[in-house]
Specification:
mainly alpha; about 170 residues
């Protein structure tokens, strides 16, 4: 762009819209040689000239700004590329650090499965044992309660007998 300048490449979005609008206006003017179309054609030509003048006179400044922004973007792209490369290296290192653990992990999975089966059997046995112990304890408590009830009956009867004897005397 330094050797063969192309100002239209550095036009802003507004300038591109204005250029397209001018082209539509020029295309819509009738080709007759009347006074009104010639005046409109002259105005469109002036607007087009103004747009071209701005693009041509500001070309070097716009080109400099474009190069500055391009260098800034290149720095950002380089920084992002460095981050991406670091990520790729970290991912590869993580992948390689797990190499060879497949057999051990599979062995652990098998052991865990066996342990879960054993745990299920042990839980069932423990449940049965707890049920047996609880039943035995409840039976013992029932027997003790029956003994205590009998003792309470005899104590009540004895107390009643003494009260009746004391009343009779």
């Amino acid at each position: 762009m330094l050797i063969a300048p192309r100002p239209d490449y550095l036009a802003t979005a507004d300038e591109l819209r204005a250029g397209a609008w001018i082209a539509r206006v020029e295309g819509g003017l009738p080709n007759s040689s009347g006074l009104a179309p010639a005046d409109l054609r002259f105005r469109a030509l002036r607007l087009k000239g103004l747009l071209t003048w701005n693009l041509e006179t500001q070309y070097h400044e716009r080109l400099t700004n474009a190069h500055k922004r391009l260098r800034e973007l290149n720095r950002d792209v380089d920084m992002m590329k460095a981050q991406y490369d670091a990520f790729v290296r970290a991912r590869q290192a993580a992948t390689h650090s797990y190499t060879g653990y497949d057999r051990r992990i599979e062995g652990m999975r098998d052991r865990i499965g066996e342990a879960l089966e054993t745990l299920g059997v042990l839980m069932a046995r423990q449940g049965e044992m707890l049920e047996t112990v609880a039943s035995r304890e409840l039976g013992l408590r029932r027997e003790r309660l029956e003994v205590q009830i009998n003792q309470a009956r005899f104590a009540f009867a004895d107390s009643y007998d003494r009260a009746a004897k004391a009343q009779a005397e």
